[in-house]
Amino acid sequence: MRQRQKISAALAASAATAAAAAATMAMGSPPPTTDIPPAVGAPPSGPCALPGIRDDVSESATTPAGYARSYGTVKALILFVDFPDARATLSPRARFAEFFPAATDFFRTSSYGRLSYHPKPLLRWIHMPQPVSAYGITRGGAFDPDSDTGYYALSRDLVRAVDASVDFRGYDIINVLATPNAGPAATRTVLSVTFSGGDMGLRTADGVPFRNASFIWSRQVGDSAFRVLNHENAHSFGLPDLYYANGRDTPALVGHWDPMDEDWGPSNDFLGWHKWKLGWLAADQVRCAPRGGPAAEHTLSPAAAVGGTKIVVIPTAARTALVVEARSRGPRDPAVCRPGVLIYRVATDVPSGHGPLRVVDANPRSRGCFTTNKYVDAELTDATFRPGAIYTDRASGASVTVLEERADGTYRVRISPAARDPRA
Fold first, then answer.
1. Which residue of 59, 171, 322, 336 has the smallest Cβ count within 10 Å?
2. Half-sphere exposure of residue 270, counting CA atoms within 13 Å on the CB side?
3. What pLDDT does 11 receive?
4. pTM for the structure as a whole
């Protein structure tokens, strides 16, 4: 869930339906993967790096100043809080182990080694001066400097409690892990939220703004419940929510193809557009098919593989594009039941929580192929296009033809770009 201060547009809560079960305390890492050597990514550039919203998280190819860097070394301060009406019943180390090293490993493998995430825990419970009920924490609550309740008040009290012992200048991200018994269980209300980007109106004694801060409440369930932290931290990197923030369920937008829509249940990898935006792809892993350009063939390497071309971007207007990538079953994508070519629409001018990214469903009348896990929205699990399929975007004239699945798991596609803008 991404939230901004009161004077900005408040956007909605994290899309998770999770449970607080004691059995989920020992949250494991994803299945073992081979070591990934350090690599250098590249921030998006060129004609396919579409501009967009600049004052909030969005699908804009570039992220404005104020957000945390998303590649290279990222240092995250981990703080633990409890309350007079919700004292911690486990050690800070046990709460830390619910998320790490699993969340670190997830970022490392998803980024192909381009994000080195270093969590730095302050291993003691920080006792808040007020009961959790007095702070009035609610789903979608604002960060309001003019209020004596809510996230501003909680953050102010937290900063006061640790300012003497913490140098906030040394961190890119702040994670506040509340004792799991504070507030409602995640099955009733998901409270986890992130305040990122601009100055929130609170500064530490070191003179740095309190921002890019994620508050993690309760516990989620599933095989990789730690990923609520990856989802929330991705807001600090500039990524938007891909589900409907107003609670609307239909039509399905992205489903289990990206944790910015579903961050519960089995693991799922980030979409290639997001990896490009975050600086996790090298320049030669992105292909651009500009409007009015010639048709061309490309070989796509699945997200589960380290090398190769990851996405082809087909601009359809100044702030919209089709993106084409390959997905197959792997350690970060165990729920992929129909390997193939995934096509989705990106709109860089659509706000977070309002459908800025939509997967094109190759089988719109099916119920999906991964139907055995209640934490996976099955409808789009068979959205991929297989060899022989042709998709044409009627509005722009762009088309994608899946020509072949090769023995090495790559896919050969033919891309016909959108027609040239007659106004250009």
1. 171
2. 27
3. 34
4. 0.91
